[in-house]
Amino acid sequence: xxxxxxxxxxxxxxxxxxxxxxxxxxxxxxxxxxxxxxxxxxxxxxxxxxxxxxxxxxxxxxxxxxxxxxxxxxxxxxxxxxxxxxxxxxxxxxxxxxxxxxxxxxxxxxxxxxxxxxxxxxxxxxxxxxxxxxxxxxxxxxxxxxxxxxxxxxxxxxxxxxxxxxxxxxxxxxxxxxxxxxxxxxxx
Length: 188
What we know:
2 domains; 10 helices; mainly alpha; Tetracycline Repressor, domain 2; 188 residues
């Protein structure tokens, strides 16, 4: 392994360790020394990779923004099938990359008041609800989804996914539910 590859592996180890500790203990209760000890490496060496805990936080938020994606335009695919396939992809990706479960928990934490403002603003910059509202309205128009406030329905869809990911983060033995179960709450 080259030095460059070793450095990238070390960087990834720091990020994954920080992610796990931030989810477990919270951002403010996790010290740089805790992260360094868990990697393991010296605190001084960790600062060669990240100048501060907030820089590390921002890097994790940027990773979270690149996650498994968001709901987009379904094209000719019926909205219920599209959402079912979307959830299937999210669960599949998370099972292949277990840190994704922690990332869902982490991103929810970062969006809360009291977190460093730059990280909070960045975490809030992605709107998953608006495209989901459009998709639900299309499904309502086509008679696939129940009548009701599409914004509330979209928020409930995402809250369900968030809750599932949090449970799977806490219980490593939990299996992903059938995506159809989640989509069925929207159906007429």
